[in-house]
Amino acid sequence: MTFEFVECLWFLFVEQIIRSSSLLQLAPLEAVLFDIDGTLCDSDPLHFDAFCEMLQEIGFNGGVPIDEDFFVKNIAGKHNKDVASVLFPDDHERGVKFLDDKEAMFRRIAKEKLEAVKGLYKVTKWIEDRGLKRADVSNTPRENADLMISLLGLSDFFQAVILGNDCEHAKPFPYPYLKALQLLKVSKEHTCVFEDSVSGITAGVAAGLPTVGLMTRNPAQVLMEAKPALLITDYEDPKLWSVLDELDRKAKV
After folding, report:
1. Which residues are the active-site residues?
2. Are 159 and 132 contacting, i.e. CB atoms less than 8 angstroms apart?
C-alpha cells in the first residue's frame, strides 16, 4: 500500500466527516427522497444483463460484450434519451426503439429476480414511524417504476413518484428533486436524498439537498466525485444509523 494511496483514503475519510455534518443540520427531518434502481433494489445487474444480451445481438462494439466499467460510465443512473445518444449517436430513433425493447426485457427479468437493497425495510419503517413525507425520484421509465415499487411492496409507502420524463430536464439536473419538494410541500433545509449513481447524487446536491450515496454497485471513489454527504454500503450500515439516531436526538431537544 503506497503512501499516496493511504493519503487518498485519509482525505476521503475526512471529507466524509465534514460532509456528513450537513445531514445533522436537517433536524427536524421532514422528508426523505429515494431513487429506485440501485437505491431501493439491486437492479443494475439485471439492467446490465439485458444490455449485454441485446447489444451483442445487434453487433454493438463489433460484437464484443460491454463490461461493467462501460455500463457505469455510460448507462447507470442516466435517462434513456441520454443513453440512446451514447449508444446510437447517429440514429437516435433507433436508440429509442432499442431502449424500449431493452426495458421490456428488463421487466420480464425483474419479475423473477428483483431484490431489495439490504436493510431497506428497516429504514422505511423508521420513516413511517416518524410520519415523514417521502417520494420516489427516478430517471426510469414509468412502467419500470410502477413495477419495481409494486414488487418491493412499496406502492402505499410513497406519497409521490417523480420521473425524469415529468420534468424539463432529468437527472443529473436538479429539476426532478426540486419538483418533489414542491409536490410534498417541504423545504430543502429539512429533506434528504438516497441515491446510488453519480448522476443521481449530482442531481440531489445541485438541488441543495444533503445526499446519501449507496455503494450498491458503484465504487466509493467514483461516487465521491459527486460530493455526497455520506457514503454507505446499504441501509444497515452503522454510519447511517449513527446519523439517524442523532437526528432523533436533535429533534427532541
Report:
1. 35, 37
2. no
